[in-house]
Design a protein that fits this description.
The protein is of the alpha/beta class. The chain folds into 2 domains: 6-30 and 257-351, Aspartate Aminotransferase, domain 1 (Alpha-Beta Complex); 38-253, Type I PLP-dependent aspartate aminotransferase-like (Major domain) (Aspartate Aminotransferase, domain 2). It is built from 14 helices and 12 strands. It has helices at residues 6-10, 38-46, 49-53, 59-69, 81-93, 109-116, 134-140, 163-172, 185-188, 226-235, 243-254, 256-279, 300-309, 331-346, and strands spanning 25-27, 76-79, 99-104, 120-125, 145-151, 177-181, 202-207, 220-224, 283-284, 291-295, 312-317, 323-327. The strands form 2 sheets. It has a 7-stranded mixed beta sheet with strand order 2-8-7-6-5-3-4, sandwiched between helices.
Length: 356
């Protein structure tokens, strides 16, 4: 009887909580509610049949991104979203029974791809107020540690990791690949990209899904030491980037004002929303992403259900006790969220005395 590998049969299937069709305001997936640059849309509309009939070539796109990021083309690989970058790293460096060290709570796909390699997952809980537990991470390292993941700023908490802490982990684990996931870099502004090539075990991943509003095109990038990147390049499909993404890449990179305006709007709306929620005595954490983490407490499910009935979806985070993650949209969308939340809190008796 045909059977898949045991580690695959036993792994937990990951289901993305995509909103139902009746949801009008999706604030659960950290997608841009503004969308992509008009220049990207114009490029999409100008594509002809011959472009789609040919296999896409990523070399020109990699040169564009490498120049944009200030690294060499040989130090960079375009990927099918940041997810493929994580998958490639796990396949390249994890043997069965090797260890991957992950600070939790964080992005779920690190564990999913590690499980596919039958690796041991070492979960290190965050410190007070979800701070990065640098000493506990260092203490968790063993001679079997092959990957350490640092999401900065972290998803779902929005908390950042100091550069000194990242350097401490990199230096403590020369035998391990250090994956620095900078998916939310554009909202944060701090990076370790300047250390690519200087630190042979450092990999930096980015995505065009967030600030560029291109989640549907599935375009990401991973950068690292040239010798190590040659390993990942060997493993990647030569046609892993679709033609739509390749054709739109130049316009997305060129429209810097669009990205800057979107980031500024997110920061303003994020701080406004946090202030509004805290006035209702809900605990919120300072965030460096396009989202905030908020604690609704014991009535979380009732609040989520009430908002869902009003056409608004937030992301439940059962790994953060009593908390939800809220994507930051346009100011008018945040005002609608608060109006609907206040309306929900004023009506059902079960929501009148929310534990926060």
């Amino acid at each position: 009887m045909l059977k898949a590998r045991q580690c695959v049969r036993e792994m937990r299937e990951y289901h993305s909580p995509l909103s139902s069709p009746d949801i009008e305001l999706r604030l659960d997936m950290n997608e841009s509610t503004t969308g992509c640059s008009p220049r990207v849309l114009a490029k999409l509309n100008s594509m002809d049949a011959s472009t789609l009939a040919q296999y896409p070539r990523r070399e020109a796109g990699e040169k564009l991104v490498a120049d944009f990021l200030g690294v060499a083309s040989q130090q960079l690989l375009l990927t099918n979203g940041a997810d493929e970058a994580i998958d490639l790293l796990c396949r390249a460096y994890l043997e069965p029974e090797n260890e991957i060290v992950i600070v939790v709570p964080t992005f779920a796909m690190y564990e999913v791809f590690a499980q596919m390699e039958n690796a041991k997952i070492v979960r290190v809980p965050t410190g007070p107020d979800f701070s990065f537990p640098v000493q506990r991470v260092v203490d968790a390292l063993t001679d079997k540690s092959r990957i350490v993941v640092i999401c900065n700023p972290n998803n779902p908490t929005g908390v950042d990791v100091p550069r000194s802490a990242i350097m401490q982990v990199i230096q403590a684990a020369p035998q391990a690949a250090i994956l620095l996931d900078e998916a939310y870099f554009d909202f944060y502004g701090q990076t370790m990209l300047d250390q690519v090539g200087k630190l042979p075990n450092l990999f930096v991943a980015r995505t065009f899904s967030k600030a560029y509003g291109l989640a549907g095109l599935r375009l990401g990038v991973i950068a690292g030491d040239q010798e190590q990147m040659s390993v990942l390049r060997r493993m990647a499909s030569p046609f892993n980037i679709n033609a739509f993404a390749m054709e739109c890449l130049a316009e997305a990179l060129a429209d810097r004002q669009f990205v800057a305006d979107y980031v500024a709007q997110v920061v303003t709306s994020r701080e406004w929303l946090r202030n509004e929620l805290e006035q209702l005595n809900f605990k919120c954490w300072p965030s460096h992403g396009n989202f905030i983490l908020c604690r609704f407490g014991e009535e979380k499910k009732a609040i989520l259900d009430a908002l869902r009935a009003r056409g608004i979806a937030l992301r439940d985070r059962p790994d953060c006790e009593g908390c939800v993650r809220i994507t930051i949209g346009k100011q008018e969308e945040m005002e609608r969220l608060m109006a609907e939340l206040k309306q929900a809190l004023s009506q059902p008796p079960s929501l009148k005395h929310v534990t926060r």
